[in-house]
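Module 6 notes. Inverse folding takes a fixed backbone as the condition and produces residue identities as the prediction. Think of it as a translation problem where the source language is geometry and the target language is the twenty amino acids. Below is one complete input and output pair. Work through it position by position during the lab.
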């Protein structure tokens, strides 16, 4: 199955300093699965992607600088890199000053190999969530979502994509309801990761919100 991992947090500095935290995150997740080991620049063609050398921290930070410099607005997004097999790998997306000034976000569009590993291992899912929450504190919200579930036509009460595992900050107005529905909770950083049933049942559970 295809999955996505998304996290939003309150930035501690400018986009470049947050980019250094993104680089730390890349280093921390690399050992978790073979498809997370090699990170290459996003390219316009398969041939370019195959020939591109692995990204470095300098490359990532310069990519962020360029995206910020060319943006017409204070808020901007970028997709600087991917990992894993070309065409089936994991795509990294970043955002800054979205949805509010001072916010930052990371998204990992998860490909087949890592998706199959998440299907088979809840421990891997927990580790991926815990690692992300630990690095990007203070977080606001995050979710690990299986992409085969249809989205609700109306916005969720917590105004975020629903996930099998979700992070809520302890000062979030939703931190009271989450433990009432969760089947498991694990404190981390400035909040907790809540598990809602299984990858198959979590939409039904979250619809009770």
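Target side of the pair, the amino acids:
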């Amino acid at each position: 199955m295809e999955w996505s991992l998304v996290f939003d947090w309150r930035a501690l500095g400018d986009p470049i300093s947050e980019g250094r935290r993104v680089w730390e995150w890349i280093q921390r997740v690399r050992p978790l699965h073979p498809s997370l080991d090699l990170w290459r620049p996003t390219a316009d063609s398969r041939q370019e992607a195959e020939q591109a050398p692995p990204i470095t921290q300098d490359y990532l930070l310069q990519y962020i600088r360029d995206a910020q410099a060319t943006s017409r607005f204070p808020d901007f997004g970028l997709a600087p890199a991917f990992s894993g097999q070309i065409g089936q790998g994991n795509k990294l997306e970043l955002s800054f000053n979205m949805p509010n000034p001072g916010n930052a976000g990371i998204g990992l569009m998860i490909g087949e190999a890592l998706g199959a590993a998440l299907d088979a291992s809840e421990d891997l899912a927990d580790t991926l969530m815990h690692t992300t929450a630990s690095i990007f504190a203070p977080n606001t919200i995050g979710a690990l979502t299986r992409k085969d579930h249809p989205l609700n036509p109306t916005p969720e009460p917590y105004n975020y994509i629903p996930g099998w595992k979700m992070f809520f900050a302890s000062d979030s107005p939703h931190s009271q309801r989450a433990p009432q529905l969760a089947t498991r909770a694990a404190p981390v950083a400035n909040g907790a990761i809540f598990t809602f049933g299984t990858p198959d049942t979590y939409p039904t559970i979250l619809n009770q919100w």
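Reference fact for the lab report: Strands lie at 3-10, 39-41, 76-83, 90-96, 103-110, 139-146, 165-169, 184-188, 191-195.
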